[in-house]
């Protein structure tokens, strides 16, 4: 089934959602962390072509949530 991908989810004509999923998978995150990272990247990819500052604020919210997981000690990883 071919999906109708809106232009704001394309980078140079490519499906940015597949790229973002690959980033999340490569980071071996929990479901919660994966959701936060995925949404951070999704809103950053589309902000200039969809909701502008609203999308930047959403990206910031999800990044803050991901940061809180690490800052609270729930997740400790070395940045390699």
Rg over CA atoms, rounded to whole Å, is: 14 Å
Mean pLDDT value: 86
> Mind summarizing the main beta sheet?
2 strands, antiparallel
Number of extended strands: 2
What pattern of helices and strands is seen along the backbone?
EEHHH
Give helix % range: 55-70%
Structural class: mainly alpha
> Which strand order do you get reading across the main beta sheet?
1-2
**Could you tell me the strand content as a percent range?**
5-15%
**Which stretches are poorly predicted, pLDDT < 50 over at least 5 residues?**
none
Report the total helices.
3
What is the global morphology? flat
What distance lies between the first and last C-alpha atoms, to the nearest angstrom? Answer: 38 Å
Break the fold down into its secondary structure elements and pairings.
Layout: E1 10-11, E2 14-15, H1 16-26, H2 31-46, H3 53-71
Antiparallel strand pairs: 1-2
Helix pairs in contact: 1-2, 2-3
Which tags fit this structure?
80 residues, mainly alpha, two-stranded antiparallel ribbon, 3 helices, 5% strand
Please summarize what this structure is.
With 80 residues, the protein is mainly alpha-helical.
Describe the structure.
With 80 residues, the protein is mostly helical. 57% of the residues lie in helices and 5% in strands. The protein contains three helices and two strands. It has helices at 16-26, 31-46, 53-71, and strands spanning 10-11, 14-15. The protein has a two-stranded antiparallel sheet. A hairpin with a 2-residue loop joins β1 (10-11) and β2 (14-15). The longest helix is centred in the last third of the chain and has 19 residues, at 53-71.
């Amino acid at each position: 089934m071919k999906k109708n991908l809106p232009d704001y989810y394309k980078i140079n004509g490519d499906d940015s959602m597949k790229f973002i999923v690959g980033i999340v998978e490569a980071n071996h995150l929990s479901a919660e962390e994966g959701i936060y990272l995925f949404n951070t990247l999704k809103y950053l990819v589309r902000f200039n072509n969809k909701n502008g500052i609203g999308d930047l604020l959403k990206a910031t919210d999800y990044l803050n949530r991901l940061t809180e997981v690490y800052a609270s000690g729930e997740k400790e990883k070395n940045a390699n």
